[in-house]
Amino acid sequence: MTLPQQVAKELIDASNQDDLKRMEQDQLECLTIYQSTHDRLEAFNAFSKARYQNINKHFESHTVMLKEMKRDLDSVFTKLRKIKSKLEQKYPKEMQQAKEKHPAPVVQEED
Q1: What is the mean pLDDT of the chain?
Q2: What is the similarity comment for this entry (predicted)?
Q3: How far apart, in Å, do the first and last CA atoms of the chain sit?
Q4: How many CA within 13 A on the CB side of residue 1?
Q5: How far, in Å, CA of 24 to CA of 18, rounded?
Q6: Phi and psi at residue 82, in whole multiples of 5°?
Q7: Is 77 a residue whose pLDDT tops 70?
Q8: Is the pLDDT confidence value at 62 over 90?
Q9: 3-state SS record for 30-96
């Protein structure tokens, strides 16, 4: 006889109805707790999903904005380099003096 069959036989053979009623009440209480916990987890998952979708929209919009800003800055710096190059060709002495008076900043790279 397998274990489930043995447990079932003992339950059927049990003559104490009070024990059976207490077991049934315990099972119903466990089921109620499980259903309550399940409902709470479902509500939390729905809330988390909504918050994630909201935050994800903001993240994507900020990513697009940062890419546009980078493109704009690249364009500005390209134009500045062109202007600087033209000024160096047209006014080499003045540009040399300006470089000596205001040297380019040294940027240290982070490791």
Answers
A1: 90
A2: Belongs to the KXD1 family.
A3: 69
A4: 8
A5: 10
A6: -65, -45
A7: yes
A8: yes
A9: HHHHHHHHHHHHHHHHHHHHHHHHHHHHHHHHHHHHHHHHHHHHHHHHHHHHHHHHHHHHHCHHHHH
Q: 11-54, pLDDT tens digit by residue?
A: 777 667 777 788 889 999 999 999 999 999 999 999 999 999 99
For the record, the structure tokens of 46 come out as: 């729905």
Cα(30)–Cα(75) distance, integer angstroms: 66
- Classify residue 59 as left (phi > 0), alpha (psi -120 to 50) or beta: alpha
For 52-65, give one letter per residue: b (16+ CB within 10 A) or e.
eeeeeeeeeeeeee
Residues 80 and 73 sit within 8 Å (Cβ to Cβ): no
DSSP 110: P
